[in-house]
Amino acid sequence: MTIIIYIFLLFIPFISTISIDIRYPQFFHQSLYDSAIEITEGKTIGSFIAFINLINDTNINLNEWLLNTTNKDFKIQSNDLSYSLITTQILDRERENFYNFSIDAQHLILPYEKISKNIRIRILDINDCTPIFNQTLYKTIMIPNETNFTIQAFDCDEPNTDNSRITYTLSNYQDLFHINETTGIIQCIKNLHTYENYEIIIVARDHGKPSLSSTILVQIQLISSLKTKKFHKFFFGLNIKENLNNNLLLLLLLIILFIICFIFICLLICCINYKIQKCKEENFNEKKFSSSSSSSTINSLNDFQQTTVYDAVNLFPNTYYLPVEKQQQQQDFIENLNHSNSNDISLDRQQSLSTTSSPISTNDNGIK
Question: pTM score, two decimals?
Answer without folding.
Answer: 0.51
